[in-house]
Amino acid sequence: MMISEELLAYSMQHSTAEDELLADISRQTHLKVLKPRMLSGPLQGKLLEMLVRISGAKRVLEIGTYTGYATICMARGLGDKGRIVSLDINEELETMVRNFFSRSGLAEKIDYRIGNALDLLPQIKEPFDFVFIDADKRNYVNYYDSVVGEMKPGGLILADNILWSGKVLAENRKKLDKDTAAILAFNERVRQDPRVENVVLPIRDGIMLVRKL
Ligand code: SAM
Ligand code: CA
Question: What crossing angle do the helices spanning 20-32 and 69-77 adopt, rounded to 10°?
């Protein structure tokens, strides 16, 4: 976390509050699921929802569903014709996640697929206009490369955890592990890509916001 607990609490108190379903997903994830820190919180969830709504995106892709918190947020930002495809390799969470989707009332907008995103992505032909990359860090460059080329101008890609708890800076790590190296490679790939403009949002664990030119 890059801001104090107090400022984070203040930021949440002055943002639209999480509703009961999202609060319950958060509660159940903390009680029953490994690594609850992976969950998107209320600030990131609301940001994703608002960006989907503002952009008017109709075809959204999420790579890394986990317990569906961000999926439901993005689904809420979609208009009548909008759909979201969300991919996750972890089949153990499927029953719980499908239950959350049905409680959201948006299940018909959510195409949830279980499998390795690297295998599933080539099967999807129609390009996306909004992509949230939030799965295994080592494949961030692969995920980016597989979606950016087909995107239309104005399409958005968001990638989460791109400051990696500060470990993108050498002074904050003992040695360069594979995940950190992958994040560094991803950030560099985006920065050097002439097809896009981008900005690093230093909120939470860092979000890379990319817009196709
Ligand atoms: N987007 C979720 C949210 O905001 O609440 C959090 C996603 S969590 C950080 C990462 C997820 O990526 C895990 O549920 C994991 O199973 C999934 N994952 C890891 N490797 C994957 C792969 N190769 N293909 C698909 N999903 C993968
Ligand atoms: Ca994340």
Answer: 160
